[in-house]
Amino acid sequence: MNDANSLIAALTDPAVRRIAQCGRVNSFAKNAMLIQEEAWGDTVLVILSGRVKVYVSDAEGRERVLAVYGPGEYVGEMSLNGQPRSASVVALESTQCSVVPHAAMREVIRNPDIALSLITRLIQRTRRAADSMKNLRRMDIHPLLGLAKPQSSGELS
Amino acid sequence: MSDTDSLIAAISDPMVREIAQRGRIRSFAKNTVVINEGDQGDSIFVILSGRVKVYVSDTEGREMVLDLYGPGEYVGEMSLDGQPRSASVITLEPTQCSVVTRDSLREAISNNPDVALSLITRLIDRARIATDSVKNLALMDVYGRVAHLLLGLAKAQPDGSMVVQERMTQQDIAERVGASRDMISRIFKDLTVGGYVSVTDRVITLHRKPPQRW
Fold this sequence. Notes:
The complex is a heterodimer. In chain A, 29% of the residues lie in helices and 26% in strands. Chain A has helices at 3-9, 14-20, 102-108, 112-136; strands at residues 24-28, 33-35, 43-49, 52-57, 63-69, 74-75, 88-91, 95-101. Chain A has four helices and eight strands, in the order ααββββββββαα. Chain A starts with a helix and ends in a 21-residue tail after the last helix. The longest helix of chain B has 27 residues, at 113-139. By secondary structure, chain B is α+β, with helices and mostly antiparallel strands. Chain B is built from seven helices and twelve strands. In chain B, strand 9 and strand 10 form a beta hairpin. Chain B has helices spanning 3-9, 14-20, 102-111, 113-139, 142-153, 170-177, 181-193, and strands spanning 24-28, 33-35, 43-49, 52-57, 63-69, 74-75, 88-91, 95-101, 154-156, 162-164, 197-200, 203-206. Classes of the chains: A alpha+beta, B alpha+beta. At the A-B interface, helix 4 of A face helix 3, helix 4 and helix 7 of B.
């Protein structure tokens, strides 16, 4: 058993292990871009070792980090619906992934257990985003006002 | 064929139809809270007729509307992970739903992999909308979010203007972009004075494209 195979065998979640078995193992250097927001891509990347950062950015290069993932997690499933990448993914350290084509992924999720595992993961992603949304909406500052001043009610205006 | 059977038969997506067939039909009056954020619950609601609003409330009790849904769409699938309801759902008009338990839905998934794929696609869409909102909230100011919302909902007219298809009050807009009504009112004043926007009887017309940043 080579190194990559033993990394796949070490994945604790059987559904993730099954997905990783459908891919080809690839190594990425620290700071390598694995996925570029808005680009087209048709692969899921299961992280076998290392760590990646998922983030969105605007035209001026401002970033918002959505998550940091390590071994046993995967990224790139958001494009399974055929749309461009919804976020960027960069390696925070040297990282090994099993790169699974979407066609193979669609095949493997015909197994209901793997489908349910993906469904749960997508729900958790949405929940996490919804939580950030609630925290973010407090920053309600009109650009024309410059600095918001607290009103007598205590609310920012 | 009963009335509700024909409503189920009218659902255009065969996968949604298959899910709806496994549920129990229920009717709700206008303004009924069907799902309450934070509650435990394991059913999904396939909408057969009517319209519902999905919203979250923050710690101060302010609402943020996530989306509106109508016939052929479903809500409540977020609790499939066994956790409490992630958002509240209220009917905007009298609404009929097919209420499907988690077990029935799991059964549908096991019986037909295409049902799972359809659900996965829907969840990806939801996750994308949520990611997009986070991006807009984090990286755009309130003005940018208002402009983004209006442009997203507006349709081009023959005279070159754009008309927002949904009738919305400033309160509705405030809830959609996560800002106070006061703030929306100020932004609209600026947009109106600048000749970008006019509002007649809650119909919002964009006369020219508002700038990306104010």
